[in-house]
Structures are given as structure tokens and as C-alpha cells.
Amino acid sequence: MSIPTNGVPVKEELEQVIPPAEILAKGPVVVVECFQNIPCDPCAASCPSGAIQPFEDINNLPTVDYEKCTGCGLCIASCPGLAIFVVDINYSDKEALLKIPYEMLPLPKKGQVVAGLDRSGRKVADVKVARVQRTKNKTNIITIIVPKDLAMVIRNIKVGDEQNG
Ligand code: SF4
Ligand code: SF4
């Protein structure tokens, strides 16, 4: 499947990669929003559980065995396309927990409120940073607390823009 020219996946594409409701209900799980057939496969090697399956052809899209995914998030920083997220839909009654890749500086701080952005970069909510994980490469992992109904909408943050709609 090709990616739209503006780089924002369409509903039909997202339906292919969002885990089934019964999987989401079990706890944190990976969401791999990879839509381009390019020669790339570090996500599979990074997964200690074998949930992202070995590629038969390096140009294939990733395939995920959700039953094997622990939601650890180790695959997030391996992806040069910033296409991997972890969603815990049941963090609380009204909130979900998201792990997202983040390459901008400065990094947010734990407890900081930042702007939650949708896939097109539009601010959709203020969200709270729960954890900041620095990694060995330039892709850090930020855990954010988001409104539950935006768990599949928010995919980025902007630090320092939380007061501007
Ligand atoms: S979140 Fe962890 S277990 Fe799940 S696919 Fe990524 S590396 Fe594998
Ligand atoms: S590492 Fe990222 S861009 Fe590369 S195949 Fe895996 S999900 Fe797609």
C-alpha cells in the first residue's frame, strides 16, 4: 500500500495497523504505522519477543503477532521512520498511555504538560509527560498520558506550545 502524498495515513491504512479491540484491552501493545515498501527492517531485529516477525523480503511491511507483544517499547527507537508507538488504552478510566518516538530538542521533562499533536501536526490536546527515556541513538522515547478517546489520534508532541491552540 502506498502512502498518501502528504505523508498522513488515511483511515483505511490505519485500520490495517491498529490492533484488534481484544488485544488493546489486554494491556500495552505496539502499533506499527509503517505504510511504505522500502528496504528497512530493524524493527524486527529489535524485538526481544519475536512479535515483529522476521521479514521474508526486506521491502515488505512489518507484520506483528500481537499475542507475543509485551508493550516493552524497545522497537520504538529502532525505527528510522518514527512509525512505531505503544498504546496502553486502559491506563485509567479516562486516560491512555502512549509511548512515542521523539527526536527534537529540548526534551520535555517528566510531569511537564506539552501539546499533543495528531498525525498532521495539529494540536488536539494538552498532555502530560509521564516518562522520558534517552536512548543510544537520536530517537528518544517519551511516554505521555492522553485522553482515552485520542489514543489513536495523538502521535507527536510539541514542547513549549501547550498554551497555543
Ligand atoms: S513493544 Fe516490545 S514486544 Fe512489542 S513489538 Fe515492540 S519490542 Fe516487541
Ligand atoms: S523499522 Fe520502521 S520504517 Fe523500517 S520497516 Fe520497521 S516500522 Fe517500517
Describe this structure in words.
It contains three helices and seven strands, in the order H-H-E-H-E-E-E-E-E-E. Strand 5 (123-133) and strand 6 (140-147) form a beta hairpin. The protein is globular, with a radius of gyration of 15 Å. It has a seven-stranded antiparallel sheet with strand order 1-2-3-6-5-4-7, with no helix packed on it. By secondary structure, the chain is mostly beta strands. The protein has one domain. The protein has helices at 11-17, 21-24, 42-46; strands at residues 29-32, 84-88, 95-102, 113-117, 123-133, 140-147, 156-158. The protein is 10% helix and 27% strand. The structure holds iron/sulfur cluster (2 copies). One iron/sulfur cluster is lined by residues 32, 34, 40-43, 62, 78-79, 81, 83-84.
